[in-house]
């Protein structure tokens, strides 16, 4: 009788196809306690100091990025203003 059950199990595996055997998986659920209010306390700690450090560390890159953008924006605004004034007469 034990031999029949082993053969029946083998037949079920073959019918399921290779790699299609059901596998039990455990789910992990993360939740915050309703009493836990400080989710990321270190993010806001010394925010001014962090911003100052980033600016002082990357001032050259920020200048090289922002100068052409601001210059182009200013040029376009001035050009549009002059174009409006030119069509007045």
UniProtKB/TrEMBL annotation:
GO terms for cellular component: mitochondrial inner membrane. Keywords: Electron transport, Membrane, Mitochondrion, Mitochondrion inner membrane, Respiratory chain, Transmembrane, Transmembrane helix, Transport. It holds the Pfam family Cyt_b-c1_8. It is found in: Mitochondrion inner membrane. Gene3D superfamilies: Cytochrome b-c1 complex subunit 8. It is a single-pass membrane protein. InterPro entries: Cyt_b-c1_8-plants, Cyt_bc1_su8_sf. Belongs to the UQCRQ/QCR8 family. This is Cytochrome b-c1 complex subunit 8. It comes from Ilex paraguariensis.
